[in-house]
């Protein structure tokens, strides 16, 4: 089974920086819903990755996060896109391998799309094909050398639409 795991922040939705979780929902990035629909039509199962940082920081509780995700899934569905799995992860490499096992997807059949160097490194460790998007912008500490933080084995693409055009024929 073909599987694509998409980082929610900066791949599907605008990054949360400065967002007030109590009054605002997620904002889809241009073309994200269309790209997900293209993956759906090409036979990919689509997983959306949510790290647990907002929960750990106390910025959002699980009830609010579930409501926000329900709104996000509805907005995607209205555009013909379907997310099969919401993946909440602390130990990312382990979460990815567990998801692949559960969905019976091999690492060779699994793509992981993110703008986070840390997330891409975890995906590569799990054996996935990692694709870094430029649309997310830098996710590095200030002063870090961007080239050194990007895993060498990660492909580089402009946005999720470019990934969809390439892999979802």
Instruction: Give, in spatial order, the strands making up the sheet with the most strands.
Output: 3-2-1-4-5-6
Average of the residue pLDDT scores: 82
Count of discrete alpha- or pi-helical segments spanning 4 or more residues? 8
The CATH architecture comes to 3-Layer(aba) Sandwich
**What is the strand tally?**
6
- β-strand amount: 15-25%
Task: Give start-end ranges of low-pLDDT stretches.
Answer: 136-148
Shape: globular
N- to C-terminal separation?
Answer: 16 Å
Tally of distinct domains: 1
Residues in helix, %: 40-55%
Order of helices and strands: EHHEHHEHEHEHEH
- CATH topology, by name, is Rossmann fold
The largest sheet, given as strand count, sense and whether it forms a barrel, is: 6 strands, parallel
Question: Which superfamily, in CATH terms, is the homologous superfamily?
Answer: HAD superfamily/HAD-like
Structural class computed from helices and strand pairing: alpha/beta
* CATH level-1 class: Alpha Beta
Question: In terms of topology, how is this protein built?
Answer:
Layout: E1 3-7, H1 8-12, H2 32-41, E2 45-51, H3 53-57, H4 62-78, E3 85-89, H5 92-103, E4 110-114, H6 117-125, E5 129-133, H7 146-149, E6 155-157, H8 160-167
Parallel strand pairs: 1-2, 1-4, 2-3, 4-5, 5-6
Give a short synopsis of this structure:
The chain is α/β, with parallel strands linked by helices and 169 residues long. The chain has one domain (3-167): HAD superfamily/HAD-like (Rossmann fold, 3-Layer(aba) Sandwich), CATH 3.40.50. 41% of the residues lie in helices and 18% in strands.
């Amino acid at each position: 089974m073909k599987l694509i795991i998409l980082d929610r922040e900066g791949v599907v939705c605008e990054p949360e920086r400065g967002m007030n979780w109590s009054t605002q929902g997620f904002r889809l990035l241009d073309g994200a819903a269309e790209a997900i629909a293209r993956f759906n039509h090409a036979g990919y199962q689509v997983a959306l990755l949510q790290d647990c940082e907002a929960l750990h920081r106390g910025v959002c509780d699980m009830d609010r996060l579930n409501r926000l995700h329900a709104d996000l899934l509805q907005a995607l569905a209205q555009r013909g896109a379907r997310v099969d799995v919401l993946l909440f992860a602390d130990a990312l490499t382990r979460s990815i391998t567990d998801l692949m096992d559960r969905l019976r997807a091999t690492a060779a059949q699994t793509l992981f799309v993110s703008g986070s160097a840390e997330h891409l490194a975890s995906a590569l460790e799990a054996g996935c094909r990692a694709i870094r998007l430029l649309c997310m912008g830098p996710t590095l500490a200030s002063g870090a050398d961007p080239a050194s933080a990007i895993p060498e084995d990660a492909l580089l693409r402009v946005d999720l639409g470019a990934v969809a055009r390439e892999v979802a024929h």
